[in-house]
Amino acid sequence: MTDLRLVVVGAQGRMGRALITAISEQQGVCVAGAVEREGAECIGMDAGTLAGLQPLDIPVTSDLDAALDTADGVIDFTAPQASLAFSRITAAKSKIHIIGTTGFTPEEEAELKGIAESGATMVRSGNMSLGVNLLSKLIEQATKALDADFDIEILEMHHKHKVDAPSGTALLLGEAAAQGRGIDLHANAVMSREGMTGARERGSIGFATLRGGSVIGEHSVILAGEGERIELTHKAQDRSIFARGAVKAASWAKDKPVGYYSMMDVLGLN
Ligand SMILES: NC(=O)C1=CN([C@@H]2O[C@H](COP(=O)(O)OP(=O)(O)OC[C@H]3O[C@@H](n4cnc5c(N)ncnc54)[C@H](OP(=O)(O)O)[C@@H]3O)[C@@H](O)[C@H]2O)C=CC1
Ligand SMILES: O=C(O)C1=N[C@H](C(=O)O)C[C@H](O)C1
Asked: Which GO terms describe its cellular component (predicted)?
């Protein structure tokens, strides 16, 4: 069987380089293209060299449209507006589009879903790791079993370069907690606290964000009751967990109909 041919967009980024490495290491897939923004200093450079590997004979370009002519799909960990622009291309060409980008507004998310349904086979998740997706299932079970006497608080820490908050993972875990409790996340979320906030509202879901250093990604969901506290935590130690998850999603998507899927679909956890 021929390899699944994948283009990495945002090739120069932290995740772009981890993706080139993960695709190169895995059987059944290959790097078919590497795309960066027009004018980026890495345009023309070899994708393998960019990722710190042996040369792959794939030069970085700024033209996703052309790169996709000889590829099956795209893996995209970039920025919300870039992912939206790329999705119009993947949908027009009926390709696989795996999106790890976070920080979409609810309106942008709805737009992305509509574009996917018009032609792409899209998998999008705020976290592509097996561990976080399994954790979200455990959180759903825990919040289903415990009533609102247990306060739900979600704490996350990431590296100093991260530009969106709360993280995509924190929101994903918040959705799982809300789902377990049978409530709407957005109606019950408290995204930050400052000053005379008043006492905590029963049934709300609180978020707290820390940023610093090189932390790859750490998330805790705390269920705080009277006299006891449960903490469910995931700590990412290497970006390869996200990259391997994204490659798995692309392989899974290969024979799936056009549509908008999540990592829970890929992992059979839905
Ligand atoms: N779902 C998951 O499992 C994970 C998600 N993420 C998410 O992935 C995204 C990227 O993270 P990270 O790699 O750390 O960020 P980086 O800033 O290191 O990388 C993003 C890359 O995308 C490029 N880019 C942005 N806009 C465009 C464009 N229009 N055309 C081409 N390239 C573009 C950037 O180029 P430039 O620098 O020129 O802007 C940069 O090279 C974030 O949203 C992050 O939250 C990260 C890890 C795991
Ligand atoms: O920006 C990052 O680095 C990460 N972003 C994702 C998120 O927003 O949750 C996933 C991971 O935690 C790393």
From this structure: cytosol
- The Å distance, Cα 50 to ligand 1 centre, comes to 15
Ligand 1 atom closest to residue 129's alpha carbon, by position in its atom list: 3
Quote the tokens at residue 34.
Answer: 């590497």
Find the 236 Cα to ligand 2 centroid distance in Å.
9
Residue 254 annotated among the catalytic residues of the structure: no
CA 17 to chain CA centroid, Å, is 16
* Residue 162: active-site member: yes
Q: For residue range 79-105, what is the model confidence (pLDDT) as tens digits?
A: 999 999 999 999 999 999 999 999 999
Q: What is the pTM of this model?
A: 0.98
Q: Share the mean pLDDT of the chain.
A: 98
Q: According to CATH, where is 3.40.50.720 located in the chain? A: 4-128+239-266
CATH of 130-235, one of 3.30.360.10, 1.20.140.10, 3.30.930.10, 3.50.50.60: 3.30.360.10
- Tokens, residue 255: 């024979």
Whether the CB-CB separation of 14 and 37 falls below 8 Å is answered with: no
Q: Is 78 in the pocket of ligand 1 (CB under 6 A)?
A: yes
- Give the separation between CA 179 and CA 8, rounded to whole angstroms: 33
With the most atoms of ligand 2 within 8 angstroms of its CB, the residue from 124, 169, 238 to mutate is 169
* Class in CATH terms, 4-128+239-266: alpha beta
Q: Is the pLDDT of residue 1 over 90?
A: no
Ligand 1 in reach of 263 Cβ (< 6 A): no
Note whether ipTM > 0.90 here.
Answer: yes
